[in-house]
Design goal:
Blueprint: H1 2-14, H2 25-34, E1 38-39, E2 44-47, E3 57-60, E4 66-72, H3 79-86, E5 91-94, E6 108-111, E7 114-116, E8 123-125, H4 126-133, E9 139-144, H5 150-156, H6 159-162, E10 165-172, H7 181-195, E11 198-205, E12 212-214, E13 217-219, E14 223-229, E15 237-238
Parallel strand pairs: 4-5, 4-9, 5-6, 7-8, 9-10
Antiparallel strand pairs: 1-15, 2-3, 10-14, 11-14, 12-13
Length: 262
C-alpha cells in the first residue's frame, strides 16, 4: 500500500498536484477559537473604505499618540492611510509591485520594496524598515496586506520591533494551507509570536475567496485580524458575537461571518 501511494504521489507531482496529510477538523476548530477576538475598554472604529470595499479595517479607538503608520502592500490605494494623513500623521508606504507612490501627500514616504525576511536591493525586513523610518520612542501602527508574505516577515521580525506597534492589522492570506499540518504550524507560530505582546481585538473573514468546508467547519481563505498591544488593555473578555456592527463585506461575493466554535 505504501509503495502504491508513493507511485500515485509521484504521478500527481508531475502534474503539479501535491498530496499532504491534512489537519484534523478538531485542530482547525481550535485554531478558529484561537483567533476569536477579545473585547477591551477601547471600542472599535472603522478606518478606510466602507460598504463592499477592500482596504477598510476595524481598529481599537486608542489612536491618540500614534506617531507614524507603516503600510506594506499598499498597491494603488491609500483609503486606510488617508484618515491618518488627515490627522497629520506620517505614513510609511512599501510595495515592490509599483514604482511610484499612490499618493502625493507630503506626509507620505514611499519605498518600492517588498517586505521580507531578508534585505537586499528589492527587499527589506520589518526590523530594518522600522529602524530606518521611525524614532525609537514613537508609538506606531502597522497595516499589513502583502499577499502571503506576512508569515515570513512577521516570523523574521524581532519582538522588540513588534512591540513598537501599538496596533497591528494583518490580512492573512492562503489560509487553505492550514488544511495541511505544515500550514497549520506556520499560522499557529505567527499567532503565538504576536500573542506574546499583543491581544486579538477583531477578526473578520475576507469574502474575496470562497470558504472551504472541512468536516462541519467552513474555513476562510483570507482573514483580517487586528491586534492591540497588551500594555494598552486592562479590561478583557471574549467578544460576545461577530460580525461587529461596523464590519462590511470586502466584495459582492457570498457573505461570510465568524461563529463562535462549540
Amino acid at each position: 500500500m505504501k509503495r502504491l501511494l508513493e507511485i500515485i504521489q509521484a504521478l500527481l507531482l508531475r502534474r503539479g498536484v501535491y498530496l499532504a496529510k491534512s489537519s484534523s477538523p478538531d485542530s482547525l476548530k481550535s485554531l478558529l477559537l484561537a483567533v476569536w477576538p477579545f473585547e477591551t475598554e477601547h471600542k472599535l472604529v472603522r478606518i478606510g473604505p466602507g460598504h463592499r470595499a477592500d482596504g477598510g479595517y476595524l481598529v481599537p479607538d486608542d489612536l491618540d499618540g500614534i506617531a507614524r503608520v507603516f503600510s506594506p502592500g499598499v498597491s494603488k490605494t491609500v483609503g486606510f492611510e488617508e484618515w491618518f494623513l488627515s490627522k497629520g500623521i506620517p505614513c510609511e508606504l512599501l510595495d515592490g509591485s509599483i514604482s511610484e507612490p499612490p499618493s502625493a501627500h507630503p506626509l507620505v514616504n514611499f519605498e518600492p520594496l517588498w517586505l521580507s525576511s531578508f534585505s537586499d536591493s528589492k527587499n527589506i525586513t520589518l526590523d530594518e524598515w522600522v529602524s530606518q523610518k521611525s524614532v525609537i520612542d514613537e508609538d506606531l501602527l502597522i497595516q499589513m496586506d502583502i499577499e502571503g508574505a506576512e508569515y515570513e516577515a512577521l516570523l523574521a521580525a524581532s519582538p522588540k520591533t513588534l512591540e513598537r506597534f501599538r496596533i497591528i492589522v494583518v490580512e492573512f492570506h492562503e489560509l487553505r494551507s492550514a488544511h495541511s499540518r505544515m500550514g497549520l504550524r506556520l499560522f499557529r507560530s505567527v499567532l503565538a509570536k504576536l500573542n506574546e505582546s499583543h491581544l486579538i481585538v477583531h477578526t473578520h473573514p475576507n469574502n474575496c475567496c470562497p470558504a472551504l468546508r472541512i468536516g462541519d467547519t467552513l474555513w476562510p481563505d483570507a482573514l483580517e485580524i487586528t491586534f492591540l498591544r497588551r500594555d494598552r488593555v486592562s479590561v478583557i473578555g471574549p467578544m460576545a458575537q461577530l460580525p461587529h456592527p461596523l464590519d462590511r463585506d470586502n466584495t459582492s461575493r457570498k457573505h461570510m461571518r465568524m461563529i463562535f466554535p462549540d
